[in-house]
Amino acid sequence: MAEFNTNPEIVQQENLVYKRTDLLTEKALSYCPGCGHGTAHRIIMEVIEEMEIQSKTIGIAPVGCSVLAYEFMNIDMQQAAHGRAPALATAVKRLFPEKFVFTYQGDGDLAAIGTAETIHSCNRGENIVIIFINNGIYGMTGGQMAPTTLPGMKSSTSPYGRDVATMGNPLRITELVAQLPGTIFVTRQAVHTPSAVRKAKKAVRKAFENQKLNKGLSFIEIVSNCNSGWKMTPLQSNEWMVDNMFPYYPLGDIKDSEKA
Amino acid sequence: MKELRLMKGNEAFAEAAIRAGADGYFGYPITPQSEVMEYLMAQKTSERTGMIVLQAESEIAAINMVYGGASCGKRVLTSSSSPGISLKQEGISYIAGAELPCLILNVVRGGPGLGTIQPSQSDYFQSTKGGGHGDYRLIVLAPSSVQEMADFAGLGFELAFKYRNPVLILSDGAIGQMMEKVWLDVQKPRFTEEEIIKNTPWATTGKTPDRERNIITSLDLDSLKMEQHNRALQAKYRIIEQEEIRYEKFNCEDADYAFIAYGTSARICQKAIQLAAGQGINVGLMRPITLFPFPKKVVAEMTSHVKGILVVEMSAGQMVEDVQLATQGRVKVEHFGRVGGIIPSPIEVVEALKKQIIGG
């Protein structure tokens, strides 16, 4: 993988208005151009940098497109088996209560194979942060149907579109975990526009602040695009996401125990 | 000062794990080993030593909690019985691949499938040949008494950290359920965070400015690197084979025949030796304590002075294959066992020796 080359003759220190956080490594992201993962990585690492908790943070990324997250996030990380990140996070946080622990999971991981771990870590109210990237498809394995694939949506294992009669309905797992007493803050965000990124970052910050105050589990879904899996250009995929994903997965806070 | 107690095997293991300075136990109920978690919960370990005990939503979650805890350099363990251990195999493969220390207890019951809740030794292949996917080995200790259930908790942690490798204690329903007197070690302190950072510098404790980030993974998409990793694992297993073989010999000096048996079967063979002596048959016992590494050389040496070997297992014949490999056909090797949760009687074992080895 290539490394970024920041030419000092072009980027003058005095002209610098924005800088990539040091908590992202020099390694070029392995995600497809146009994918939302990179932005999601960035806002999490910015929050950890701003809170000055790098030395206390342990991240866990299981199987999926983000399986190589440890290549990009400059923090201690554990790579979990498919679906099991909340189990690892549970143990890490119980054994190191003073650390900050988060998982970074995709839809197939969190809402299909790892459903039990998701529900039970939320129900126990583990004092962790779960970041859930929902792009409605299995990206890493080449575009198969996910638990969150929309009705009628085509994938390599639903080539004629998702038929809910035989393939089941898309799972709104975020609404489901919001029902559980162990979750303190449950929200659905996106990272497709600057304003959405700002809101999503605010939610991530709030989630880590909740953990700092031992409040319980914060769950952040980020609805994202998968231009490769959806077979669209990045721009088309974002437009399609707004028109099709957002109506089924509406953005905004679903549960905020502080406000209640 | 050691302490003398009368305990069940499962309870002795749990108490010994606390005293070995365990940081966390993660389990799921299954007969015949549920006493492990019941005992730990009753002990209020979080008050006693600060040890975390958590009932997970499944055996899969439990072994992955062990993975997370082991990644932090903590002393963590789980226990289960055969069907539950099958569920844990993916996680065990990850733990072996990521080279993490942990302790796993299997209180074996008869299978296949849901099988029975009665004792068995039918998980030998699964325990010693890998179990999950990929080329890996566990260090496998086979207790044959309540005392060893206790002793192997401490020894298991020691070996797990020495080699950064999961250690499996392969017990069975009889050893887990029976009560015997047991001498318990004094309480060892749990690791402090400073000790973890010093002794296990690879552990995920939070990246500090003085070091690179620590990554726990079993993944490498570069096959050449993955081949190197596999070769390193195999080199480690060869060292374990050289350094860690444990076994016990009983009445073997001038015996004409030998039993080879572990765990509960070894206890039955000890009684069978007495019964056989009464009939003028001089038979000894070699009891492997480590099943991986298997005491191959010890078995090979036995072929120079015994006429035949009866491998007694509560299975359809699993360890017998390792004995046959080690003896290279130099003496007669036969298997005798009962399956499906039946424990053979010493009389049956003596009859099998006479029929299959002496008369056969």
Note down, in words, how this protein is organized.
The complex is a heterodimer of chains A (260) and B (360). Chain A has helices at 37-50, 69-72, 85-95, 107-113, 115-124, 164-167, 173-178, 194-212, 227-230, 234-248, and strands at residues 57-61, 76-79, 100-106, 129-134, 137-138, 144-145, 183-190, 217-223, 252-256. Chain A has 260 residues and is an alpha/beta fold. Chain A has a single domain (22-256), classed as 3-Layer(aba) Sandwich (Rossmann fold), CATH 3.40.50. In chain A, strands 2-1-3-4-8-7-9 form a 7-stranded mixed β-sheet, with helices on both faces. Chain A is globular and about 55 Å long. Chain B folds into 2 domains: 3-194, Thiamin diphosphate (ThDP)-binding fold, Pyr/PP domains (Rossmann fold, 3-Layer(aba) Sandwich); 247-358, Rossmann fold. In chain B, α7 (146-163) links the parallel β6 and β7 (166-172). Chain B has 360 residues and is of the alpha/beta class. Chain A binds chain B through residues 54-58, 60, 67-68, 70, 74-81, 84, 87-92, 94-96, 99, 116-117, 119-120, and chain B through 23-24, 26, 52, 54, 56-58, 60-62, 64-69, 71-72, 74, 76, 90-91, 94, 98, 193, 204-209, 213-219.
Strand content of chain A: 15-25%
Q: Using the coordinates shown, work out and report the CATH topology of chain A.
A: Rossmann fold
In CATH's first tier, which class of the largest domain in chain B applies? Alpha Beta
**What's the β-strand tally of chain A?**
9
Task: Using the 3D structure, state the CATH architecture of the largest domain in chain B.
Answer: 3-Layer(aba) Sandwich
Helix content of chain A: 25-40%
Q: Most extensive chain contact?
A: A-B, 32 and 39 residues
Multimerization state: heterodimer
Q: What is the second-level CATH architecture of chain A? A: 3-Layer(aba) Sandwich
User: What profile does the largest beta sheet of chain B have?
Assistant: 7 strands, mixed
What is the 3D form of chain B? globular
Termini Cα gap of chain B:
52 Å
The class by helix and strand makeup of chain B works out as: alpha/beta
Order of helices and strands of chain B: EHEHHEHEHEHEHEHEHEHEEHEEHEHEH
Number of domains of chain A: 1
